[in-house]
Design brief:
Elements: E1 2-4, E2 11-13, E3 24-28, H1 35-44, E4 47-51, H2 55-70, H3 82-86, E5 96-99, E6 102-103, E7 108-113, E8 134-140, H4 142-149, E9 156-159, H5 165-174, E10 181-185, H6 187-190, H7 198-208, E11 211-217, E12 220-225
Parallel strand pairs: 3-4, 3-9, 4-5, 6-8, 9-10
Antiparallel strand pairs: 1-2, 7-8, 10-12, 11-12
């Protein structure tokens, strides 16, 4: 295994991961750290769909493009090791597609809750995960997004979506969609909001459907489908 990206936003993947210029990656949850996505694109020239309705994330994506064009500075809450991890890369931006929507288990418009501290980028579709202030965002399923983009498979799915991971994974399995690799942060359990033991249940369901745990780093889990 190797870690791609910052301490905060990086993920562990196999050194011999099967990705190339034709591979499709869905990256749910962008925030203000694209180090993993940028390194994946640089290393494998793969196609990456960035999925996040957070206003700060949308702004950060534009700032990333400006950074590579003219080394302009970032305005957000950037990690101390961020520049170190992205400065030597040569991303192909026509293979990075940004979708201003959230992932969920149905197509809908939902409340998107902010954190009390305005400096923090993460937001959640889950009530009581963060603060009470919200705005509404469009959400959709992986299956619908694949249909919209004419994708027949996903090679790697990353989910860092602040508690919605359970609903998204359940729907994904219901729809018989099996990405080769999964990188999932199980935020409901990490933030002590998993009152129905749903994290344990979805991990067991993933394993019953052919997924093997490659690494579990404090509920940031990398799976491979066999």
């Amino acid at each position: 295994m190797e870690t791609l990206g910052t301490i905060y936003g990086g993920w562990d993947i196999p050194i011999n991961i099967e990705l190339d210029k034709n591979s499709i990656v869905y990256s749910g949850g962008v925030g203000e750290d694209m180090s993993f996505d940028l390194k994946l694109n640089h290393n494998y020239n793969c196609n990456i769909i960035l999925i996040d309705p957070t206003l700060k994330a949308i702004k950060h994506f534009e700032e990333v493009k400006n950074y590579y064009n003219n080394r302009s500075k970032f305005t957000g809450n950037i990690q101390s090791d961020y520049i170190k991890h992205i400065s030597g890369l040569n991303p192909t931006f026509n293979k990075l597609t940004y979708l201003n929507k959230g992932l969920h288990n149905k197509k809908d418009t939902l409340k998107f809750y902010k954190q009390a501290n305005p400096a923090y980028v993460s937001q959640s579709l889950i009530p009581n995960m963060f603060g009470q202030d919200y705005y509404e965002v469009e959400v959709d399923t992986i299956k619908n997004i694949m249909s919209e983009l004419a994708h027949t498979k996903i090679d790697l799915l990353k989910l860092d979506i602040e508690g919605s991971e359970i609903d998204v994974l359940e729907k994904m399995l219901d729809d018989k969609i099996f990405p080769k690799y999964l990188c999932v942060e199980f935020d409901l359990a990490l933030k002590k909001k998993d009152y129905n033991n749903s994290t344990k249940k979805i991990i067991e369901r993933l394993q019953k459907n052919g997924y093997k745990i490659l690494l579990n780093k404090n509920l940031n889990i990398t799976f491979e489908y066999n």
